[in-house]
Amino acid sequence: MEKDGLELEITELRLGLPGRDVTEKMMKKRGFTEMIMTSSGSNSEQCESGVVSSGVDVEKVNETPAVKTQVVGWPPVCSYRRKNSCKEVSTTKVGLGYVKVSMDGVPYLRKMDLGSNQGYDDLAFALDKLFGFHGIGVALKDGDNCEYVTIYEDKDGDWMLAGDVPWGMFIESCRRLRIMKRSEATGFGLQPRGVNE
Amino acid sequence: MNYFPDEVIEHIFDFISSHKDRNSISLVSKSWHKIERCSRKRVFIGNCYAINPERLIQRFPSLRSLTLKGKPHFADFNLVPHEWGGFVHPWIVALAKARVELEELRLKRMVVSDESLELLSRSFASFKSLVLVSCEGFTTDGLASVATNCRHLRELDLQENEIDDHRGQWLNCFPQSSTALTSLNFSCLKGETNLAALERLVARSPNLESLKVNRAVPLDALTRLMSCAPQLVDLGVGSYENEPDQESFMKLMAAIKKCTSLRSLSGFSEVTPLCLTAFYPICQNLTSLNLSYAAEIQGNHLIRFIQFCKRLQRLWILDSIGDKGLEVVASTCKELQELRVFPSDLHDEEDNDTAVTEIGLVAISAGCPKLHSLLYFCKQMTNAALITVAKNCPNFIRFRLCILEPNKPDHTTSQSLDEGFGAIVQACKGLRRLSLSGLLTDKVFLYIGMYAEQLEMLSIAFAGDTDKGMLYVLNGCKKMRKLEIRDSPFGNTALLADVDKYRTMRSLWMSSCEVTLGGCKRLARNAPWLNVEIINENENNDLMMERNEEDEREKVDRLYLYRTVVGARKDAPPCVTIL
């Protein structure tokens, strides 16, 4: 699997609706399937027709090929419903929302109420308990030495390393958490530290 | 009929309420046209830019109820820039100036400001009903004006609007003397609600039939509200993410039991399984159920609930119900007419085993013979399934199928879904609305053009091979009114083939297709009665118009054209060019 090829495509995706510069008609139609980062790794062609709604990263979780949500306005669910679907965590009230927590290698998602934690230490402990795994907490506190990194998706759709911003700011903007193997994280496309505010 | 005095003819016309029929009447003769227009109370305008308020008022001086629609449908999916247009203000200004005795205003996808609402509330003494759907631009301050000044307000229905919630006291603004409310829906408000004011308002509104509260109304408040409004027919509840204690639960259930008129239930942005069970006593009376916002509730709880709802006619649900759940619906809800199954997982987080497939759809079609409206998001489909569905349910009026992955073929044969959709249009002779998805070639459009004689609205995405596809539709579907296309290889040839066709249509939308600037310019030249709008958020449009001929080949991002009797609109933002 071409992980490196993956990140190249991410940077080459253009922020525009498909069809602007496509030369071939067939490519037009297959344009979407070419956006799909399949595990076949046959992405030698540039995905010029790729459309990325700003901030959404292509997330490659093990082998599942289909990436359904990379196109603006697709699937055709109206924006009110998208915003109010419970999967989006409400940030108007601290602690009101549960965030989904996924961990590489674990087949099911967990949910946790961020607001019930007092700080990053608490969170580390809670995560350990959630997955029954004693390494995650270390990831938060002592990032560089751990097998795992803890990242979160903020309300702009960007993936950030957990632990950098003040706790209050973190729970306001965190939409979901992911515990990812350090080895997978390097090509992932994390926002560099300090990019926001 | 010409021997009758005008008043008699007018009285006869009173019995005719459908817009289509009244439009037909007005074409019969000059005298009928005059009688009809002077007596017309309700007007529906599907595109607010097709006409202007002055001409509307001139033609229908007795106007009491106005329905206006603004942005094109694809605005729902963020394909239309925020500032595109659809402002209601000039309409309210004109109606106020002409002293129209407006009683009812219904708006969809329009921009409404607090100023507009204030003006509305002060200008029409008999104003009774305000319905806003998918609108934006206003705050709770605007609602406060309406509550304060509209003394005869009966209906305030806010559906899926983007409202800036100033957490003010708008509910307090309803005067003590206001007792006429029949319908109050503020489910889309995000902020906290003055519960005491709400309870007082409900208590003094004996005619209240429809009440839809927002997330911020907790369980105990809901219990009190239901206790003082047992006459409710339509209830939208709030968000209940915590299990109630024993006492609260018993009280809630007791209050619910008293609401024997309840037929419609919605809301539930979060609901615990136990909470849901409190509603079991009234399930058997329900004809309409909307659980499509309850993302956290698992399929088995949904299924248990629905098993009690034997009289359901309308069901909106999430795909977490699964195929098994839909089989239960099929065996329980024999009266089902409308089904909407929404995707619960929009971020592709899980390999979603519980999402629905063709199996669920086939089960529904077999079990629910009265089904006529469908919106179905699924992860896969087959031709065989669609053919079976067509055979089981030839009565579809609305059929919208969305396979989540674009261009996905029949997963058992790897073929396109042309035959499946072809079977639908051939069997369902009354089909008025159709949305396509999956892998589709020009052939599906050949079928649509051939068979879909009543089709009025068609939505196309990632489909077709050549201009022939679009041409089949334009030539074949005589009743087409709204055609919306995205990411499909249709170009100038199809666009320009029959310009007069657009006289019979309300609008055409094409985005990320093959039409070029040159083609659009040519169309605009040949059809001055059309507004041909090019939407291009990425560039300065002055630059665009200065370019030389070579750039006529530049593809157009988004094209929106519509017939109009009042020419180019003056309120277009910079990103919109009207050719």
Automatic annotation (TrEMBL), chain A:
Key words of the record: Auxin signaling pathway, Nucleus, Repressor, Transcription, Transcription regulation
GO biological process terms, semicolon-separated: auxin-activated signaling pathway; regulation of DNA-templated transcription
GO annotation, cellular component aspect: nucleus
Keyword Nucleus: yes
PB1 domain location: 96-184
Compartmental location: Nucleus
InterPro entries found in the cross-reference section: AUX/IAA_dom, AUX_IAA, PB1-like
Role noted for this protein: Aux/IAA proteins are short-lived transcriptional factors that function as repressors of early auxin response genes at low auxin concentrations.
Similarity remark: Belongs to the Aux/IAA family.
Quaternary state and interactors: Homodimers and heterodimers.
Protein name: Auxin-responsive protein
The organism of origin for this protein: Brassica carinata
TrEMBL record, chain B:
Gene Ontology molecular function, alphabetical: auxin binding
Residue ranges crossing the lipid bilayer per the database entry: none
One Pfam family of this chain: F-box_5
UniProt superkingdom: Eukaryota
Annotated GO biological process: auxin-activated signaling pathway; pollen maturation; SCF-dependent proteasomal ubiquitin-dependent protein catabolic process
This protein's record includes keyword Nucleus: yes
Keywords associated with the record: Auxin signaling pathway, Developmental protein, Nucleus, Ubl conjugation pathway
Span of domain F-box: 4-45
Pathway: Protein modification; protein ubiquitination
A GO cellular component entry from the record: nucleus
InterPro entries: COI1_F-box, F-box_dom, Leu-rich_rpt, Leu-rich_rpt_Cys-con_subtyp, LRR_dom_sf, Transp_inhibit
Subcellular location: Nucleus
Main location: nucleus
Protein name in the entry: F-box domain-containing protein
Originating species: Brassica oleracea var. oleracea
